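Our platform keeps sequence and structure together, in a single record for each protein. Nothing more is needed to write down the fold, since each code stands for a local backbone conformation. An entry from our holdings is shown next, in its original layout:
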Amino acid sequence: MLLDDETLFYAAQERLKENKRFARRNNNVNQYLLRGMLKCGECGNNMTGTPAPQGSYCYYRCSKKLWRKSNGGQDYCGAPLLRADKADAAMWKEIKGKLLDWENLVKGLRKQKEEMEKAINPLTEQLEWVESRLAETKTELDKALRLHLADNLARESLDRIIAERRQEREGLERTRANLLGRIEAGKISDEDIQTVKDFAKKIAQGLENADFESKRRLFEILQVQGRVIQTDDGQQIKGSWLIPKRDLIVDVSSVPSITARL
């Protein structure tokens, strides 16, 4: 099934946000493999990585917890913290297992690539029109300025044209940025597929000593997303990845309770 326009829009927003977060990764000594990929099962907000106020562990916690002091507890989410090392290890084990069936995985990626390309074709056409119109507005402004300098256009008329074209350009530039994000979010490159294939072969050969950046890159290509759910036995991550109809269900060991300073 083709991705619909709304799906691409929200995927673009998440990709843009994640690019900003990932660009700052070297500023934080703690590494969160699932950073930007988890949502709270209680309220739907993003889960954010954070070290514990006491102790040596790091956790994922609902971003609404951050509001407890500033808003007197209103809209405060009481979902428990999720230990990052256990969540990351559990998700990596799940993905690693799927990589062992790398032939079917690559076939799925190629099929998804074809469907995504069909879905973004109309967006590419829209982008071409926006780029063309932006060029036209510049030409119209240059023409108006030449007419004014030749005393063939009053200053009031020039000011009006400048204001109208400036407003139009601002709208077009916002549209262009949005389209670029949606197109980027819907792309799977041949290089991405080859990266997954090579990585899967290494896993199959027993070469499992992947570093954090390699795992993170793989998760990004596979577009791993998850929602943290509380169960009777502890916590579970229910999510999705790039291959449709193959949901991720990852059981995470119970996390010891801690007193967080929120």
